[in-house]
Amino acid sequence: MREIIRLEPVFKQMVWGGAGLRDHFGYELPGEDTGEAWVASAHPQGDCRIAEGRFAGKTLSWLWKEHRELFGGAKGEEFPLLVKFIDAKEDLSIQVHPDDAYARVHADGARGKYECWYILDCKEGADIIVGHKARTKEELEQMIGKEQWEDFLNVRPIHPGDFFQIPPGTVHAIRNGTLLIEIQQNSAVTYRLYDYGRMPGGKPRELHLAQAMDVIGCPYVESEGATETFHKEGYDRTFLAACPFFTVEKYVVRTALSLSQEDPFLLLCVIDGEGAVDGTEIQKGDCLLLPAGYGTAKIKGSLSIVTAHI
Ligand code: ZN
Q: What is the 113 CA–ligand 1 centroid distance (Å)?
């Protein structure tokens, strides 16, 4: 049976969050400090519910456990991906994530975290932190130990449409005035290096300097794959990322797109505009899962979507 699984977002209030997710997507937010909408997640800290159909009210983790045939029999205890919209009103902490091997040993068997960002919108003059400037491990430890952040951090200007890959071991931080979509491995293991001395609720958030210094790659090697856009009749297709954990593409649909779904599953997130997938109406902020064996999806309307699959 060809079925479309619509996921409901889980919102996260954050010390650095704002109301941009409402302004941009029209979401009803839990508060004016909402930093993230987890739009495709089976993580225990935010497990998306299925909005309609025969699985209405069940969670994505339940679906992964009980109906693996919908995912083409893909292996693994947990659903492998996590997709978020992120609105940073303030700066996020400077952080780094471990790889699978390190997380397995040091984070209770969790996954590592490879992530990537596609910038949806940002303020004039916005920037982002990706990578660092220490040349050796000694320099790295010294710069972190003495909090020489200005010398240490690689700050880059950003514009809507920019794309960044953040492999494990990459120092990074999203900064204020940025709205983006993040596609990542299903993991929440974060090692925080610096939090600007913030005291949310009267006390600082925990730092994890020892683990961070263990996992930071030195020297930093830039890992942006080239993105490539193909102009077709009715739509543009941009290839964003292929890493061992996921493939990400963007489509700008002007009139219509026939999208072939031959993967174990396909996540389809609407980042702008509105339209329909095989008659199911969609608009910006929506996230659908097309299961294994779906075949060709006919997408119509004037909209931009980001797709992700393993
Ligand atoms: Zn991160």
A: 8
